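Appendix B, Record 12. Input sequence as logged:
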Amino acid sequence: MPQPTLKASQAGIEKAKTAQTGKGWSRQDLADRVVVGEGKHPQIGIGVGTVNNFFNCKGVKSQYFVGICKALGLNWEKIEEPNGTPSPQESLPNDNPIAELEQLNINHDNPFIPQHGKIDDPRFLFGREREIRWVFQTLNSGSSVAIIGERAIGKSSLLQAIYRQAPTQLHHPRQPIYLDLRNVCDEDDFYRALCDKAGIETAKGYQLQRALESHRFLLLLDQVEKMTSDEFTNQVRGQLRGLAEGNNAPLRLVVSARNPLDILFPDSEDKNMTSPFRGICVEETMKQWDEKISRKFIASRLQASWLTPVAQPVNFTEAEIAGLIAESGGSPQKLMQLCYQTYARYIN
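Logged structural output:
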């Protein structure tokens, strides 16, 4: 049986366009942020063609339609064409009901979420205000930034926060572009992705420089260590340096990595070339959480405003809190997971 589809009304499309503009997203950015499904392995990201169909008032699979609306912060029922609601015979599959999709994997009975992956919902980001201030101070001074930190310390979540706040925090406007290099196959694929996000024809070298001359972008590169693989040469890193040099350069960079950049790219020095990011990126090392911030995090989640109100709110004992902090070892993700388990024992 074919899956049901929904169509947006013309008035709904206008609301969606306004929401998209307000977020500063391209259609590809929106496609990358759509979440479909529940449980441990939701689908994150859909094809940009589906987003184009949505904006062209064409039929879109119901779960994708709801996901697009949710990513834009819209109520899907107010966006759909009035006659586009699926009939009872065409209800969504049991594992993807609309009611579940609207939750987008948010369990209002347990505030310690998400347990894995980057945080792209500003409600759930905690404890990185100092780093965010520092990043924008550095960017506004004319330098690019490298965020260095161990695995699962929150680098990707920090990049997402910078992406969201760039339109209001940068003194000189730049359109933010986010690229997770784990989704990029090789050097040619990188150029295709960059140009697609920038809205220009695919190019490299001088043609890319010419195409970007009239643009100003903030390029956020997640997992930049991917550029150490055999699929990338120093040439692409050198071009990034060239495009990011100068106060009025087409690109300003924010890159994330687990190790300092000079350690990641020693091949530049071996070939008597300037390290691709030396003098361009000022490095900031993300630190683990100390006891003070860990305690504040636990308290803030137990009192979260978006929790479903209950007669007897959950509170952890002092012994539990001390044990959770000690066992987490300063890892934000580990603390989140441990707190989730502790909270679950209370409500179950």
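The beta strands are 5-6, 35-36, 43-44, 60-61, 144-148, 175-180, 217-222, 251-257, 281-285.
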